[in-house]
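User: I'm putting together a small comparison set for a docking exercise, and I want a reference complex before I start. The sequence is below, and the ligand is 2-oxoglutaric acid. Could you produce the 3D structure with the ligand included, as structure tokens?
Assistant: Of course. I'll restate your input first, then give the structure tokens for the complex.
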Amino acid sequence: MLSEDQITTYHERGYVLARGVVPAAQLDAMRAELAAWTEESRGHTENFGEILGGKARFDLQPGHTADNPQLRRVANPVDISEAYRNVLFEGPVPAIAAQLLGPDVVFHHFKTNTKAPGSATRVDYHQDHAFTPHTNDDMITVLVLLDDMDEANGCLTVVPGSHRERYSHWADGRFIGRIDPAMDAEFDARAEPIRGSAGDVCFMHNWAVHGGGPNLSAAPRSLLICDLSAADAKPLCVNPVPTPHEGRVVHGQASRVARLTQAELEMPEIYSDDSFFVIQEREAQARAKEGT
Ligand SMILES: O=C(O)CCC(=O)C(=O)O
């Protein structure tokens, strides 16, 4: 569980890293599942599998081949794997989330993000709440480190204090799934790398600005990314990564009350792509074409 100091750090900085939360046996079980899905991906040239609503569950990095598989994202592994349900629905992860959100906590959606060794996968600066607006922002992105990570293998980077800031994720009338690239230099100067070991968990406010570079090392890098909210934070738009577990109570009890605290919110465009990477890539290509 978090100490009082760690809880204060979370509220002041917008994130806190809790060490050694997930035991080795549970990490091994999740890694084994991910390794099996990666093996399976060798037999595919396009995204495959299906989640609720029809998007693909398994998302391939451009350049993926049978010899060099690059399974960058798995949507809602909790739908198909007990190993992931055990970590995200029970035990210390929901209990710590309750220390930060209040006693009643529900699940929204979840994905794994893998940067294979040498992979170009990068994540542009964004705020998760811009993709999943709710009636209030008592929401956390839980980031479970499945591997040791630092800058060399493309660890997550977070901008401290940015959970109190609001940025548009639109440009020229389109939802671009990222903050204006003109802000990149400022964020690079402020951002802090989340260096940690497998089993550590970063609890990050849903408005915290974050991103991450490519994995230029020989080491793998997989991260679990799970959105949890206070039970009285009700979604204002459809889930971009639908799952039958949306709204599942992981701590305390359900709420029939929607608590409204956000007077004005920019809404996302509901995207039909399998993952948000496609939106960010489309935007990068558009910029490259325009020469900006
Ligand atoms: O994998 C990472 O380092 C960050 C991923 C991320 O921020 C996301 O997918 O929303």
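The domain at 4-290 is CATH 2.60.120.620 (Jelly Rolls). The pocket of 2-oxoglutaric acid is lined by residues 113, 123, 128, 156, 210, 212, 223, 225 (CB under 6 Å).
User: Thanks, that's exactly what I needed.
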